[in-house]
Amino acid sequence: MTHPVPPALREFGAATGAGATALLDTPIHEVEALLDPSTNAFFFDVDGTLIDIAPHPDAVEVPASLIRDLTALSEVANGAIALVSGRAADVLDRLFAPMSLALSGIHGAQMRRVPGAALEQPGAPLDPAVRADLSGVGDAHSGVLVEDKGASVALHYRNDPALGPRLEEEIARIVARDPRGLTVLPGRMVFEVKRRGYDKGAAVRAFMDAPPFAGRIPVFLGDDVTDEAGFAAVREMHGIAISVGRRLPGADVTLPHAQDVRALVKRLARSAERRV
Ligand SMILES: [Mg+2]
Q1: Which is the CATH superfamily of the domain at 23-29+37-121+198-275?
Q2: 223 Cα: distance to centroid of ligand 1 (angstroms)
Q3: Which DSSP state fits 96?
Q4: Which of 25, 36, 45, 69 is catalytic?
Q5: Residues in CB range of 205: below 8 A, 6 or more apart
Q6: What's 128-195's CATH class?
Q7: Which tens digit of pLDDT belongs to each residue from 78-118?
Q8: Where do you find CATH 3.40.50.1000 in the chain?
């Protein structure tokens, strides 16, 4: 399915050269002007995009105001908003309770197309031997936190950044046993191993095939390398890719911080309420 390029983005791109290189730190009101909750579908990465990164994955906080604003945005966007995260669905539900949203967990391995629907699992669990070996690598280093999600294993090394190259090498040796089946996602102070064949882009395409997303212009907001697959998917559909915190390849515009994304969500929800 293709969409017309939104006129605002076309003008914006012509004026700034956006698309080839995302503008760093685009003012929120300029990003807001590109978007319309009545015609856009919104896909949000979570960590580093909607919420601030914490020293430990369990230490993150979802502000109550964000839950309120996302709920309001979902209403004005007719439900066309989804979380697209590396976290597992049950963790996302716990973080954002009592709100329930459409979501994709573990980089596309899990999908819930509309709130309350059954969880689809397009990504099969990793081989138990691979999971055990990856856990073993993590456990051998005191600065590494192992997060075994079944469909993926993430090794976080935020507590000892110098470990990065060594960890990467040890993980590569395990992945090399099945290079056609397994892949490593490098993120911010994390390496995550998962099966090939699904990613955040595949999740976006699947959402866009069905209501309430189908027929809308997709917008993807993300802060990390794994979000580039989401950027590519929305750009195929003439959508808008918003990079957070740094200029990622494939982004149209960049917002400096997760707090700017939260401010944008609030403004979009309110501007649409005013229009109704
Ligand atoms: Mg992120």
Answers
A1: HAD superfamily/HAD-like (3.40.50.1000)
A2: 5
A3: H
A4: 45
A5: 233
A6: alpha beta
A7: 999 999 999 999 999 999 999 999 999 999 999 999 998 99
A8: 23-29+37-121+198-275
Ligand 1 centroid to Cα of residue 274, in Å, is 31
pLDDT digits (tens, 9 = 90+) for 118-140: 999 988 899 999 999 999 999 99
Please provide residue 150's backbone torsions phi and psi, each rounded to the nearest 5 degrees.
Answer: 90, -70
222 CA distance to ligand 1 centroid (A)? 6
Start-end of CATH 3.30.70 domains in the chain: 128-195
45 is catalytic: yes
Cα–Cα dist 267/73, whole Å: 9
Please tell me the distance between residue 150's alpha carbon and the centre of ligand 1 in angstroms.
19
From 17, 188, 169, select the one nearest 86 (Cα to Cα): 188
Distance 55 CA to ligand 1 centre (A): 14
* Predicted TM-score (pTM) of this structure: 0.88
Asked whether the beta carbons of 264 and 240 are under 8 A apart, the reply is no
Summarised one tens digit per residue, pLDDT across range 22-72 is 556 888 999 999 999 999 999 999 999 999 988 777 888 899 999 999 999
| pLDDT higher than 60, residue 265 | yes
